[in-house]
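just leaving the lab so this will be short. what follows is a protein written twice so to speak, once as letters and once as structure tokens for the fold. can you read through it and tell me how you think this chain folds. thanks a lot i owe you, the record is right below.

___
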Amino acid sequence: GGGGEVEGAPASARGGLRRRPRQYTRLPLSSSSASPPASRDGRRRSRPLRLASVSSRGRRAARLCGLALCGLSLLAWLAARTFAYFLPPLSYGLVQSLIWRSVRREVLTTPGLHWRGPWQRLLLVPSTRQTFSWAGADALPALTGDGLKLVVHAHLQWRYDPRTLRELYLLLPPPEEGAACRGAVFRCGGGECVPASYVRDGEEDCTDGSDEAAGAEAEAEGGDSPLLRPAERVMRQAARSAALTSFASHPLHAFFGDKAAVSEEVRLAVAQALGSYGVLVEAVQLVAVEVPPSVDQMLMEAAVTRLRIELTKRYKAMWAAALLIRTMVAEQNRRATVAAARGAAAAVSEGAKARAVRTGQTVRAELEALTNLTGSLRTSAVELLSYRWLDGLAAAKRGRAMLVRSGGGGPAARGGATKGGRLGVGDDGAVSILPAGARRRS
């Protein structure tokens, strides 16, 4: 049907005619040694058959390469999901074991692909500046150093320190890890989540107004990996208390005339309060200071209060002086009473000593007299003290009187019996007690 067209000729020789379908007989690749069929004009068509076999091999090879590449890609994806993880920018990474629930000591700070072992997960913590906002309904009800009430709207900017991030996570982990904001949303300072499109739109959507704070765009979270903020609520309360305490040390005019100095002192106080948590406090911004309408009345009340405080101080000083005088008088009375008591005790002691000396002298004199008496009477002290000598003397006098009345008896015969012995009286009138059976010498 092509007239004198030559098959296998170049397109310029064919005159731009299309090739008819099934003009060539395809041979299998294994039969490459067979002779190609001849054309109508008797010439062999070796070149088109060779091109057809090469193109078929190329398609098969390309198909095999594609399958191999797909398999390698799948294996690489599975290996990456199992043994590697990707740390996104603007975040720190903590590797936690899903079996033992332990956290590695190493904190990942470089974004990119990191290799890991099986059964582990990646905990993401933001590395950007975090903001505690006290604005709107959450503004700080401050009390100045002169007793005035203010409402302060402030923002605190801080960031996590990677050197202490692991210890902070183990000490105060987030209360609910699944409650973190997922997707392209923004996490407010109070914990609620709002869409990222609400950030910096001119309207406060968070209760604390943190979605309109400076730098809030950088805090919008994206993706399915939640950003964890360990100890966020505890640090917020600690920072609030430190800020209120620092506000109480400044007078009212400092909040309007030297706001930068007040902000710096508040930053130092908050940094000291949050130092135990290992975070870095970077700045404190006093956005607005609201004064109540009744400031004049409050100033008058503050002046009256200061006057009362001054009067109380003076009254206290006066009573302190009176108490000191009374204390001195009581001390003098105590010393006088002690001295008088000591003098009376000394007098009593000296009197007792004098009476003891007199009693000792009297006893010694009586003992000496008793000794002399017993020696002169020739009797013992026991008989003398038991009145036996007196009984014998009385009996001797009665016997002598009887002898005189009877007219008998001589000097040797005079004598009388005594109890326990004989009582003899000599010529000189001396009386002596003799034992029973003894004879008196004449």
Q: What stands out?
A: The mean pLDDT is 75. Residues 132 and 236 are 7 Å apart (CA to CA). The two ends are 215 Å apart (CA to CA).
